[in-house]
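task queued by scheduler; priority normal; single chain, no ligands, no partner chains; default sampling; output format set to C-alpha cells
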Amino acid sequence: MISVRNLHKSFGDQQVLKGIDVDLMPGKCNLIIGLSGSGKTVLLKSILGLIQPDEGTILYDGRNLKTLESHEARKVRQEMGMVFQGGALFTSQTIEENVRLPLDFFSTMSASEKRDRVHFCLERVRIQNAAHKSPAELSGGMQKRVAIARAIVLNPRYLFCDEPNSGLDPETSMVIDALIQDITHEYGMTTVINTHDMNSVLEIGEHVMLLKGGEKTWEGTNDEILHADQPDVVDYVFRSNLMKKVRGALSRG
C-alpha cells in the first residue's frame, strides 16, 4: 500500500497540490482522475519520486524514502514499474532489448536468465512473436504492450501508468485496461493510473480519486461514481462524456 498524507506542492505562486490524503491499495487499480490543471500529473510524479513535494509524507508499505539510507531507497525504487504516456520505447533497439533494459541496469541475472525473463513477460502480454522487431513495426496498442512488459520485467511491487490509453482507439484501450487489471490482480501490485478516460474508470476503477484544483474532492469505486450526486463528480463525468462525443464526431467528419 502507498499512503499519501498532507501532500503539498507549489511552483512559484501556483499551489498545485493542497494537502492530498489517500491510501492506494495493493491488488487494485487505483485511478487518479481530474480535468486538465487538477494536479493529477504532479501527484503521480510526486508519488514516483520525480518531484519533491513541499510538505507531507509518502509511505511505500510503511517506508519513507526521505528517511531511508541510499541503498534502501534504491531498493524501493527498483520495486517501481512505469508505463509512460507515449510508451517511451527506444526506436534503435529491438522489442527484446527494450524490455531487457531494466534487467541490464538493476539485476544480477545471467544472460540466459534475462532472456528467459524477457520472453516470459512478452508472452504474458501476448506479443512473444515480436521480440526481434523494432517499435516502428508495431501498432500503438502493441507498443503499449511492450511498455507494460518492460514495466513488469523486474517484478515490481508498484506499477504506475501515465495515461496508458493515450492515442489508442476505444477497442484497443479496453484491451490494455484489461491487461493492466489482470496483471495487477495476478501479482498483487499496487497499481496507480493517471487517466482522463471515463471508459477506464468504469471498466477497471476499483479505487478512484477525483482531483479538482489540487484537492481530492471525491473518492470511491467505479460503481459509486455513476451514482454520486456531488457536483464535482457530476461535472467531471458530464464533461468527459461530452468531450468523447465531440472527438468521435470530429473523427467521423
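post-processing summary
- The first strand starts at residue 2 and ends at 11.
- The chain has nine helices and ten strands.
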